[in-house]
Structures are given as structure tokens and as C-alpha cells.
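can u pls check wat happens w/ pterin cytosine dinucleotide
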Amino acid sequence: MADTGIGAAVRRKEDFRFLTGRGTYTDDINRPGQTHAYILRSPHASARIKAIDVSKAKHAPGVVAILTGADYAADGKGGLPCGWLIHNKDGSPMIEPPHPPLIVDVVRHIGDQVAVVIAETKTQARDAAELIGVDYEELQPVVDTAQALQPGAAQVWPQAKGNLCYDWHLGDKAATDAAFAKAHHVTKIDIVNQRLIANAMEPRAAIAEFDRATGEYTLFTTTQNPHVIRLLMGAFVLQIPESKLRIVAPDVGGGFGSKIFHYAEEAILTWAAGKIGRPIKWTAERSESFMSDAQGRDHVTHAELAMDKDGKFLGLRVSTIANMGAYLSTFATSVPTYLYGTLLAGVYTTPAIYCEVKAVFTNTVAVDAYRGAGRPEATYLLERLVDKAAREMKMDRVEIRRKNFIPRDAFPYQTPVALQYDSGDYFSTLEMAQKKADWAGFEKRRAEAKSRGMLRGIGVSTYLEACGIAPSAVVGSLGARAGLYETANVRVHPTGSVTVFTGSHSHGQGHETTFAQIVSSTLGIPIESVEVSHGDTDKIPFGMGTYGSRSLAVGGSALVKALDKIVNKSKRIAAHLMEANVADIEFKDGQFRVAGTDKSVPFGQVALTAYVPHNYPITELEPGLEETAFYDPLNFTFPGGCHICEVEIDPETGVTSILNFTAVDDVGRVINPMIVEGQVHGGVAQGIGQALLEGAVYDNATGQLLSGSYMDYCMPRADDLCSFQVETHNTMCTHNPLGSKGVGEVGAIGSTPAVINAVLDALQPVGVSDIRMPATPHKVWQAIEAAKTAKAAE
Ligand code: MCN
């Protein structure tokens, strides 16, 4: 049998259907009698709805129904809940404004949902929507993150005074102040981590239907999280018993976090399908995605690092304003707190850290998790600060890092910001990356570039992240309104093939392959004999979905537990078949053997016996071979590593070219090296996108989204990138049965600061020491020109 087990670079099982165009995405599904929905959205960032006139639209061709916020409210349906309660410094709860799927009174961002038109065709629905008259009274919006807290700023919610959602803190303030009091030098930095738009290739879509005969609702939707959507929508929003609500996430074309959340359209369609008694389909147009998908990042931060005379870090103070947008999306509140503040130790031994975060409301679409969620913001801040500290202390950038790294023998390592790291080796990942990137030869390359009039720079980022957020008891005590375990059900069929039902959801990560590899290794059966089923609440026992790079570490561990149960039961069946003692049964390569003898039975025979129990220990064991496990991890996993980027900048045009990018990551035990490499590639491309190209821009005066299409929002393309050098150096996770850490986000976390540190290294000789992301050619050119002017004025 070809090696298809753990560690093999198996080609993705799912690729045949994707590459041959046979994937089934939500928009590919059509239900008999289906209608189409068009969502009428607000053209204003802030406005009072004085009246909605649907009289003309109602009679437009093909219109089946037009429903507004008033209809929704009249049916007594609820708003979209926020899944994480944050407490203020003084212990009081955050402000949690209502989040109705259809707005009744005040629209609070461009794209807010005002009405839904349901018609026989999509075009008819859109045409009819144009006939709806909405009388708006325009109000002054506030959109800028830092300005939201300023006195006199427009108020998004009357109950959130000064637009403050919460004022949270973490760490020991007194100890941090004491560390600063004895500092030899303090490096200060102001950082903006700009707002990003996830831009998954497949836009969000949904089809809802209601079966009058059974009273059951079914929602096909582009989600990373089917059971959580069922829980939230069933229990809180529409009050439908979960037994009457089925959520199906078919093939999903990328999410990058933006499809974790429970969205208004899911609730609108499901509710409306019940009202009209026909299936309703909605697929976002790309411009709708720009203005209605939750966006990411958007932090404004001031930070200070205290050091002794040798550059040893003594203390870190961080003060961040985080933009929530107009409403609290499902996990929004946890991102700038427990996924950010807790990461501020990074890979360093900084003994005292204090972080405060003020979350603000603005008249913009909600901000929530986007690949990395909180951890890229913490990493970017730290790695920029460390580079700046090195410059100010006149120390080598690598040396200052090494001096402050958590030593190899210090694990488990307790940080001052709650997390306890189980394993890591930051020295080796740094050394390997330096070698691979030929760090030592860089100055020669810089000199050669200079001879051509080009500015060359190299940047490093030594990062750490936390994934598989857990355990449930801990996150519950921190405000999570859900558990963060995962489930797996392993069904062995009579002829020995296996179906795995997992609560994790694959939308590009390749679980159908990697989870099958785990089964193949454990049961000694070919990967072709394993099917992995996910995404349907009627098939899967329960699931907490995919985000925070948790699927392997948590979902994969649940699978290992379920497989253990299968093997244990199978051993008892095998012992019976071979008339041996169960303690003497060994299982290897798909064979159950009586230790020390040549007696054996294959796994397939045991499976058949379980279902055809003619010769079976029936008084001790039930027939059948199917097991379920729930796994609640003991801790996060902590991937880390080193990313090095080399760039060349043309000072005449400001164009930055990425010439080399090296990533050496620690992801624990690797199940599939090819998939791991692909995950890092994708993440690095997105991290480079943030550094150089991407940014959501709102007009400050009107709240209009200026970067509302690909004309103005620049995604990285192949010719913006170079060929990446990707490698792993792995230390095992000590608390999950696989030893694996997450990989899905590392690329997006480690890369961005490496790129900007490289850009600033290149610009150093011309006197530029700071730049805001995205470092577009225009911005770089302006910075160079400003530095020239400043120099001339000296
Ligand atoms: N893997 C492995 N060995 C490891 C770690 C992971 O072989 N040591 C494999 C896993 O089995 C899985 C893949 O790598 O097939 C990613 O695993 P994991 O790190 O557990 O991440 P998740 O599967 O939970 O995916 C979530 C993560 C996140 S949070 C974002 S955002 C993201 C990402 O994955 N969104 C993606 N990668 C994406 N890739 C695609 N194509 N599309 C997205 O939307």
C-alpha cells in the first residue's frame, strides 16, 4: 500500500472535483420552485429611515414578496447575537447594541439591510428593488477609528457614550510601570493596522427553504461554521428548535475568517422562506461582498518598550483603539482582546506587560476575524517595535531578538499575559531562515543594488501565534458564550471502508485529505477507503467549525480519540475471533495479531464480524463499529517561526519588488507537508497583500466605502510575489494526541512585519524611518520625497 498516512505528501483528494469544475457550491444548488432575493441596502453610512414605500415595487413583474424591518419586528424575531462578552476594566459589561437583520429606524453603515425583495428571477428582484422609495434623513457619520473617541464625534449608538463599546485591559499595570521606571531606554511607536477585506473567491450565498409538511427549515449557506449558525439562528434569532433546522455548508470557496459569522442574510432568507412557503436563493454580488462581509484588523496603537542598557526587554505598554464597525459581529469582541492582548509577549521574555484596548463603534460594516485575527496585529506591533528598538539601541536586529528569546529549555513558559506556551524553539527557526535567506550575504546584494540606483532591504520577523483556542472552561470564564471543543464520528462500514463525520469544516484547507490520512495511518487502510464528511448538521453529531487554525489540533484530535475507541473495540472482537486474551492483541499495519504468534486477522475481517456477528462476544459487546468522540483541548497550540523578506525599491517610482521570501515555521507534527506548504504560501501572499497593497478606505466625511471594488482594492496577484522558500522546524505540541499545532494562519501572521521591516531597511539610507501600510508605490515615493525635503531644510 502506498504511504498515505501521517507525514505523506498526498495529493488532495478533493482536488479532482475542484479542478474539473465539479465542486458543488451554494450557488450551484437549485431547489424546485425556488425564488430569488435581492437585498436593498443603505446608500448612506448614517441615516434615519423616515418611510419606506413599496407600493410600486410590489406590482413589478415577478415579485413574490417585499419584506422590511417592520415585518420582521412584527413577527417578534430576534437580532444577531455577539458570541463573546467582554468586561470593562471596572468589571461592567461591554455595550451590546441591537443587531437586527433588517433595519427599522436608523441605518448605520453603507450596505445595511433595509428590505428584501423576493421575485421569480434575480433580475426581477433587483429591478423591483429600484422601485422601492426610501425616505432617509441623512445623519453625520463617524468612520475613523481614532476619531470615534474624540469629543464631539458623531454618535453611532445613544447607549454607547463616546462610541465606546468596551475599555478592556490585561496585565499588571503596577509591575509594568515599575519596569519602565528603571528602564535605560524606552522605544515608542505609533502603529496603524489598516482595515482589510477578506475577499474569498466565492461570494457569500444562501438558499433557505421551509417544508410545511414537516415544519423543517433547511438553509444552505457559505459558512465555516454550520452548527454554530444553527445554534445562534435557531435559539436566538428565529426561535426554531434545532431539531427543525438543518444547516448545510456545501463546498465553500474560501472564507479566511469572513464566513465564520452569523450574517443577516441567513436569518432574513430562513425567516422569509417560512413566510412565503417557497425556497429563496441569494448570492452576493461582488460589490455587496465589499460592503456587507465583515472586515478585518483596523487597530490604532501606541506602544512603548522599556529596555535595560543591554537591550534586554523589561516592560511593554500597549494602548489600542479597535474598530468594531456599527454592530458587534459574532466573534468581533474577542479579536482585539483575547486574541491580541494575550499574544503581546510574542517569543520574548518581557517580564511585565500591560495592554489596554478601547473598542469603538463607527458607521462602517462590522469588523471581525480575518486570517490571524488579533495575532497579526500583535505580531506586527511587536516586530516593528523590536526593529525600532534595535535601531535606537544601535544593536543588530537579530541580536536583540536572540537576547530576548524564550530559551529552549524554558518550556512550559508562562507569559505575563495569561498564556502558557507548551513548546517552541525560536533560535533554530531563526537560524534556519537566516541560512536559507542568505542573510550573511545580504550587504553584498545591497551594494550591488545600490550600484544600479536601487534600494535593497531585508526584514525579519520572529513570531508566535496561538491557535485552537481552548479549553472551553477557560474561554467561558473569559466571556465566550460557546464551548470550543470538537467532535468526530467514525463509521466503519461492514466491508472495512470508513466515513468520518467531523465538526470541522473545510473550505480550502484540505481536511478531506489530511483527516483521511490520520485514519489511513491509524487503521492501516488505504486513503481511498476513507471518506470525510463535513458541513451538514443533519449528518454530523455537533461541531464548533473552522477558524483560529483549530481543525487539526482540535478536530483532528477528536478524530484520534474516536479512532482509539474503534481500535479498542476491534481488539476485543479480534481477541474473540482468535480465542486470545485481549491484552495480548497488538494492532499494526491493519492487522490484529496475538503477540508472539503468527495468528492475525485483518481490520476488514473485524469490521465484517462487527456487522455480521455470527461468531461474536455478544454478551460483552454490541454489534456494529461506529464511535463518536468530543475533544476539548487542554490549551492552545503555539506555532511560531521566522519569516525573512528581501525587497528592492525603485526610488524613482516607489515600487517595491519582493525578491525573496523565506518562512521557517514550527507547526508541530505535520500530517501533510504539501498541504502545510500550500497553507503557508496562501497566508504569506495575504500577509504581503496587507503590507504592500490592500486597505479598506472609507471617506471620512460621508462614510462611503471608497475601496468598494477591485478597481480600488488591490489584491496580490502572482506577479506581485516571488517564489517563496518554505520549510518547517517542528517542536511537538505537548498536550494533544497528534503533537500538531495549527498552520492555517501562520503565513498571514509572520509575513507582514517581515515585509515592512524590509521596506524600512531599504529606505533607511534615504532617511525614511516609518511608513504606513499598505506601503504602496505612491506612499513609498512620497516618503522618499518628504525625507529629501526634510534633509534639504536641515
Ligand atoms: N495541517 C497539517 N499539519 C499540521 C497542521 C495542519 O497537515 N501540523 C493541515 C490540516 O490537516 C489542514 C490544513 O493543514 O488540512 C490547515 O489546518 P489548520 O491549521 O488546522 O487550520 P484549519 O483547517 O482550522 O483552517 C483554518 C485556517 C484559518 S483560521 C484561515 S483564516 C484560513 C486557513 O485556514 N482560511 C483559508 N487557510 C485557508 N485556506 C484556504 N484555501 N481557504 C481559506 O479560507
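The two ends are 74 Å apart (CA to CA).
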